[in-house]
Amino acid sequence: MMEYSFHYRLEEEWLNLGEVQGVRSDPFHYRLEEEWLNLGEVQGVRFPVPAEAFIPVKSRSGESYGWSTVAVQSYDKDTREYTVLPLDDSDTTRQLPRIYVMFKAEDPRNFAARIKDALDRRREAENLIRCALL
After folding, report:
1. What is the CATH number of domain 33-105?
2. Where are the chain's structural domains?
3. Degrees (nearest 5) of the Cα angle 29, 30, 32?
4. How much is the pTM?
5. Predicted confidence pLDDT, tens digits, the chain (134 residues)
């Protein structure tokens, strides 16, 4: 019988060769970047758009990553990153790629499917690279 962790490769033995953020899954993007920001527009005034972001959070054991409520302020087309402001006691804005941002108006199932697709694509690309190197 195969162990669960081995079957699902929970303990990765290879070096991770690529960032997930570079993988774009267009079928899962049903709104453009500007359309997300336009959701915060009320009577011609643009307000930050509420979202959840996967960012460093403070914990007892030091710094770790977790989901935090943020306000999305803008999008930079050159870097393809959103500017977000965490709504905890932090004053620092962060630049995040789309894969780390889940808008409150977004269907969580679509977001999860997009993350899974990006991870699957990265794993496939890594396997192709490994085969070429062997």
Report:
1. 2.30.30
2. 33-105
3. 75
4. 0.71
5. 444 444 444 444 444 545 555 445 466 667 888 899 999 999 999 999 999 999 887 777 777 888 999 999 999 999 999 999 999 867 789 999 999 999 999 999 999 998 898 889 889 999 999 888 87
